[in-house]
Amino acid sequence: MISLSSVILIIAFVISMNLPECDQCYNELGPLCLVGLAYSIYAAAIWGSIPYVVLPHTVGTAFGMAMAVQNIGLSFAPSIVAYIKDNT
Q: How remote is the C-alpha of 9 from its chain's centroid?
């Protein structure tokens, strides 16, 4: 399932890169829906696999660390994207 979500993300980003530029049209809606679908599949697979790869008495800590890493990424990603957008 994780591999499937990666393939869906690649397809969505390739479609998004090849769309014509448009100010007030909804052509980006399809790729964004694919990104949401891919993330849903990925999240369901990755969160469900945490108890299988850690010791039973460390499951809570593993979930906490996974959430911390995800939140770090969510806090820094918009700044990185804005920097790239401003400089290209």
A: 8
